[in-house]
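Researcher: Good morning. I'm working through a list of sequences from a screen, and I'd like to move beyond sequence-only analysis. For each chain I'm collecting a predicted structure so we can compare shapes side by side. This is the next one on the list. No need for commentary yet; just the structure.
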Amino acid sequence: MERKRFIDEAVEKKQAFFNDVSDKVWGYAEAGMKEYRSAEYMEEAMRKQGFDVKTDISGIPTAFIATAGSGKPIIGFLGEYDALPGLSQEAGCPVKTELEAGAYGHGCGHNILGAAAMAAATALKDYLEENHLPGTVRFYGCPGEEYGSAKAFMARDHQFDDVDACFTWHPGTTNNVWLCGSLANISVFFTFKGKTSHAAATPFLGRSALDACELMSVGVNYLREHIIPEARVHYAYVDVGGIAPNVVQDHAGVHYFIRAPRVSQMMEIYERVQDIARGAALMTGTELTVKIHEGLSDYIPNEALTKVLFRALQEVGAPRFDEEDRRLAAEIRKTLSAEQLESYRNTYAPVEEMQKMIEGGAVLCEEILPYDKACSPMGGSTDVGDTSYCTPTAQISVATEALATPGHTWQITAQSKSSIAYKGLAVAAKAMALGAVYAMEDAEVLKAAKAELVKKTGGTYHCPMPDEIQPTL
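Model: Good morning. Structure tokens for this chain:
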């Protein structure tokens, strides 16, 4: 049977099964690295599809690898299933209606992300079995993308080293391949220890840890002028030393995120921030403790592999939405502010096709955007970056949300359990599976993808986290 037709039918035959996986994970809505019910349900789902499942990967109870087939090449699919705090929302409802106040919700669509990657892995397994072809299919169950960075720990433990090509995707507002990188990110706690004293009677006997935090922040703010403009440094106080103004604070701490387009740039800035923290400790006579919490590498898109995935996405085509889908998307659009809509328009100003859609009043993206290499790194960070340093990696975005829907919002939670999501899930699964077939059956593609990875990385991966840093569970 012709490849595309087989993949289409393989996904469609099991669409209801994977819709159910998506819905179950949506309902569990668990925090990163604590997705116990979600992981258990997905593990059992993969067993039902004929995969062998290995759990507790890299010391993470909710990480797993499902494997089928044997021999080379080895193709990986990345799945995620963590939710976000405070984004609980009724499914398919265009009015903010929390299911439970302050509870977690899938405001980044990871329930669909994981289910579609599972469907792609299953379709590829079925294709290899039907055609008696060699090759190994792996589905990586990757918890904690939002909080926990499981892929970085898995990469540090060499879980991706023998993979020939890796595919993933992300729910979004558009249908396109990812040709942009992401920002490397290191999460660090700076803790100062001082000495208490009466702030009025004997302040000279005290050593203020809070002063150290504030001096550090001043120093970092002056540093901003002297780092590359694409970098980002932001922080939050995690301990201010107590509530009594008349007691010199003997403990205080601040949590920093340091981001840059490449992991090497990030680490250079991190060293300078550490120097500032040491200076703040010296100025205040306090003791400094520095602890890395987690760290992510930047995403390196593999163009040789991405071209194959783009071909597959074009052949599969955009999701075919109906009037009910457009009605829900239009209602979601009404909840967005003028500022949010303007920001979205500005984001896609250079993309002619998007401008036509927006100006024409479209509420859903119903076409494939062109292959465009002229893009800057996205503003966020993802642990997919660590995978991309270990093996050639390509990913796509598929429309599962109304145009202009902002990330990490209740509006995404509402749409992530709807017919819009199901249609995007099917397209993502078909495109990834078909792209994987094309890559597996063309040794030159895999060879070129590997050569490109070595050229871009030097053939080595250095995890931003020291070996002593363990997953936060």
